[in-house]
Design brief:
By secondary structure, this protein is α/β, with parallel strands linked by helices. It contains 11 helices and 8 strands. It has a single domain, classed as P-loop containing nucleotide triphosphate hydrolases (Rossmann fold, 3-Layer(aba) Sandwich). Helices cover 43% and strands 18% of the residues. Strand 6, helix 7 and strand 7 form a beta-alpha-beta unit. Helix 1 crosses helix 11. The chain is globular, with a radius of gyration of 17 Å. It starts with a strand and ends with a helix. This is MinD/ParA family protein.
């Protein structure tokens, strides 16, 4: 049965898109058919991680939402850019980076029900095993939809007071929406912290499983979104943690 996986955070800057790119790639490298939808339409950027040149993006999620093209026409095969071979497939449905398109979305919004229908068409049309949704930070009717339809919801937070408070609100919403499986990922933790104690603290606070804890990594900062980290540095501690989380998504 295909799985919908939403990657979400209450605040921006948590590493949501990097997490989405690395987890979806890790799953595709296991021979699965995977697609990623960039629904962070106000500030799109995950296409950079997958090496998709904006010049190639003739159609985007925006075109589908405005009734200008089928959503499948905005699906780009990026598997070859990250070493996905054989039965595995990795598609990206990017959002437009054109300033006029972003302004239009901000002023007009879009039909959330249509977005849901687009997800269904993608799963069927591309014969997907997994659909990853890179959400917009915060809580809105768009993110409520993504959370509600998810088989797996991954919430990312930093060990930061504002993140703790915002995540508490999001966890409560997810529980009200009866999300089937919720996992927490702690990102940008200082290496000096006791990760076992941090994991226990977060799990006790939210009553939810912590799937992984990622240290603040200078190597990831230096990569500067020019590629998928777990492909560039497969033996790195951070890459090993991504693979561990990916296995929990697939379980």
């Amino acid at each position: 049965m295909p799985k919908v996986v939403s990657i979400h955070s209450y605040r921006g800057g948590t590493g949501k898109s990097n997490t989405t790119a690395n987890l979806s790639t890790s799953v595709a490298l296991q021979g699965q058919r995977v697609a990623v939808v960039d629904t962070d339409i106000q500030s799109p950027g995950i296409h950079n991680l997958f090496g998709l040149d904006p010049e190639r993006m003739d159609k985007t999620l925006n075109n589908f939402l405005w009734g200008q093209a089928p959503i499948e026409d905005a699906a780009y095969d990026v598997g070859g850019n990250v070493g996905v071979q054989g039965d595995g497939k990795l598609f990206l449905i990017p959002a437009s980076i054109r300033p006029d398109d972003i302004s239009r979305i901000l002023s007009e919004g879009y039909d959330v029900k249509l977005l849901h229908e687009g997800f269904r068409k993608l799963v069927k049309g591309l014969n997907l095993d997994y659909l990853f949704i890179d959400t917009h930070p915060g809580l809105s009717k768009e993110t409520f939809l993504s959370i509600a339809i998810s088989h797996v919801l991954i919430l990312i937070l930093r060990p930061d007071k504002q993140d703790y408070q915002g995540t508490a609100v999001t966890v409560d919403v997810a529980k009200q929406l009866k999300v089937r499986k919720m996992l927490l990922v702690v990102n940008k933790a200082l290496s000096s912290m006791n990760f076992d104690a941090l994991k226990q603290k977060v799990e006790d606070t939210y009553g939810t499983t912590v799937a992984g804890i990622f240290p603040l990594s200078e190597d990831m900062v230096q990569l500067a979104s020019e590629g998928v980290f777990c492909v560039k540095y497969p033996d790195h501690r951070v890459s090993q943690e991504f693979r561990k989380v990916a296995l929990q998504v697939m379980a």
